[in-house]
Design goal:
heterodimer, A: 358 residues, mainly alpha, two-stranded antiparallel sheet, 4 strands, 66% helix, 2% strand, B: 256 residues, alpha/beta, 6-stranded mixed beta sheet, 5-stranded mixed beta sheet, 28% strand
Chain lengths: 358, 256
């Protein structure tokens, strides 16, 4: 039965010697990291990292810390879901942070309320006709901005054959220009109460989770998902096999930028303001999450589950360092070490795998 | 005329100043298996690349089933019914066997543009059938191709060609990297193709294999067709003489 269901030709296949999926390693790293902070906490602070120690609160976990871990990077997480698909397809997207910035400015302009404490909105961009619009308008505007940006950078990559790094670098610079030009660098504030509700509490994380699950299912079960891995794995073979590679690339970059647009809507709703500098370096956070999660920068391998674990690792580091009272500068240094370590480990794993070792 | 599958007239390809292929006149009939032989750089692979539109020819005409064709992309050639096993395998290393077999022609449970839901079960079942037919040994269909031996990969590529029965099959050195048993399997696949009456062009350096499998041998030398030999009327010695240039042909031979 075991051999019959897996292969053909009667070779023995030992299921117990099967290689772990790469995500398991990332999960182990996450658990180790949490345990480390827990132990260090007890040693140095006589306090728990994860569990509740306050006598006046009756919960098992330290819910404040947990929600911080889940929410503080959720916006970057939403971006990472899109970036993961681009990287699996063999590309890279540097533009997502800037696209978020531009989208934030434009979308916020359609989310403003007419009256602030009885006075006219001091930050109004448009006339009264564009005030107090239903919540759906700024959301659609945000997604549409992302779609337009994505179609441009995807089109550049697919049809002019510019390397993705250059094409999205150009979009990164241009989109940041748009975000500064839109209101001459002035922040845009005072959204409607309904619009604010999008980003309150744990909702950014729930949106991230929903988007992540949706696209993981798409990667697993749809033609688009299969073609992401095929194009990232061997572009020429995919083309010869009849996959419309160019159209696929435009679609992946469009989805990625649309998710950056969604991230913009979430962040301006959460912070109740849009600023021209928003989202700076977010693209690198997103790429970091993917890389830590085992998404291969050479394409063809990875998953959104991995990226999600990468998100948790990054967030646990931030929370852990705050908890231990370590200077924030060390965070960045440790992040750098972890990025390098994750890629080195992944390469070792690949080499061990192709050498036939189990 | 109606039994001619493929016909090339004056097919020529220059790479800059290099005359890789010059004035190749070639014909293939229904159900016929033809071997293309020649030294390295003789123009065999170049010839195949012009027919399958991996490259665009410099000049000349190609007709397929009586119609003149100008394929712009390999995909067009494939859609017209020319299936090719390339020397550098057209497989996606990170995908498993069924995904590679059905790459670019997936089956769906539910059509929804790019987000169509894949029918993995049916593709897996068909893959199993196809591989059983070809006698390939693969321990786990869900392993990525990266983890497989050269022979197994080659068998997957050939099984793909044989599964999607076509009007013309071209194999570019299909057994070059294979072990003894795997070579025998590939040769069996080719015999099956012959029994089904499907035409085939086989590029090979293996003299025994060629005499074993095909009806006719066409020899390339320095970008030209120098010999067109019926298997029954020639010998390995004569073929070698043509390949090495010990025996010369008259100008502009018609390989028909």
């Amino acid at each position: 039965m075991a051999t019959e269901t897996h292969g053909v030709g009667g070779l023995v296949y030992d299921k117990s010697k099967r290689e772990w999926p790469g995500e398991v390693n990332v999960l182990i790293a996450l658990v180790v990291m949490v345990a480390l902070f827990e132990i260090l906490g007890w040693i140095f602070l006589h306090d728990s990292f994860l569990f509740n120690t306050r006598p006046d609160v009756h919960t098992l976990f330290n819910n404040q810390r947990l929600s911080a871990i889940f929410v503080q990077l959720a916006v970057q997480g939403i971006i990472a879901v899109g970036v993961t698909q681009v990287i699996i397809s063999g590309g890279i997207d540097l533009s997502s942070g800037s696209v978020l910035g531009a989208t934030a400015m434009i979308s916020m302009s359609f989310a403003q309320t007419a009256l602030v404490n009885g006075n006219p909105n001091p930050k109004a961009i448009f006339g009264p006709a564009f005030m107090d619009l239903p919540i759906i308008i700024p959301v659609i505007v945000g997604l549409a901005c992302g779609v337009i940006a994505g179609m441009i950078s995807g089109g550049l990559v697919a049809y002019t054959k510019i390397p993705p790094f250059i094409a999205t670098l150009a979009m990164m610079v241009a989109a940041r220009g748009v975000s500064r030009w839109w209101s001459n660098g002035n922040p845009i504030s005072f959204p409607t109460a309904e619009f604010n509700s999008i980003g309150t509490g744990i909702r950014p994380f729930l949106i991230f989770l929903g988007v992540g699950i949706l696209f993981q299912l798409i990667l697993w079960f749809t033609k688009y998902g299969k073609h992401c891995y095929a194009v990232g794995s061997n572009e020429e073979a995919s083309r010869i096999s009849g996959i419309k590679v160019d159209r696929h690339k435009v679609l992946t970059y469009t989805i990625a930028a649309m998710l950056a647009g969604l991230a913009a809507v979430v962040i301006i709703s959460k912070q109740q303001t849009a600023q021209a500098g928003m989202g700076m370096m977010y693209e690198l956070d997103a790429i970091t999450m993917a890389v830590i999660g085992g998404v291969s920068l050479s394409g063809g391998r990875g998953s959104i589950i991995g990226t999600f674990l990468g998100f948790l690792i990054l967030s646990v580091i931030i929370s852990g360092f705050i908890f231990l009272g370590v200077n924030a500068y060390y965070q960045e240094m440790v992040k750098g070490v972890i990025i390098a370590g994750a890629v080195v480990l992944d390469q070792w794993r690949q080499r061990a795998g192709s050498a036939g070792r189990k | 005329m109606s039994d001619i599958v493929l016909k090339t007239e004056g097919l020529t390809k220059y790479y800059g100043g290099v005359h890789a292929l010059e004035n190749a006149n070639f014909m293939l009939r229904k159900g016929e298996h033809v071997a293309i032989m020649g030294d390295n750089g003789a123009g065999k692979s170049t010839f195949v690349r012009q027919i399958t539109a991996v490259e665009q020819r410099t000049s000349g005409k190609v007709s397929f089933y009586g119609n003149e064709v100008n394929f712009k992309t390999p995909l067009e050639a494939r859609e017209a019914g020319i299936e090719t096993v390339f020397q550098n395998l057209a497989l996606a290393d990170d995908l498993d066997v069924p995904s590679n077999l059905f790459l670019g022609r997936e089956r769906f449970l539910f059509k929804l543009g790019p987000f169509s839901i894949l029918d993995s079960k049916s593709m897996r079942a068909s893959t199993r059938d196809a591989l059983v037919k070809t006698g390939v040994k693969i321990p786990n269909l869900s392993n990525s191709i990266r983890r497989m031996s050269g022979g197994q990969r080659q068998c997957v590529a050939i099984a793909r060609t044989a599964t999607f029965a076509s009007k013309l099959i071209i194999m570019d050195e299909p057994t070059a990297a294979l072990g003894v048993a795997e070579t025998a399997q590939v040769e069996n696949i080719i015999r099956n193709i012959k029994a089904n009456g499907e035409p085939l062009i086989l590029i090979s350096h293996n003299m025994r294999q060629v005499f074993d499998l095909v009806d006719r041998i066409v020899v390339f030398r320095r970008g030209r067709i120098v010999a067109n030999l019926k298997k029954t009327e020639t010998s390995g010695e004569e073929v070698v003489q043509y390949i090495t240039g010990a025996k010369q042909a008259e100008e502009n031979i018609l390989a028909a």
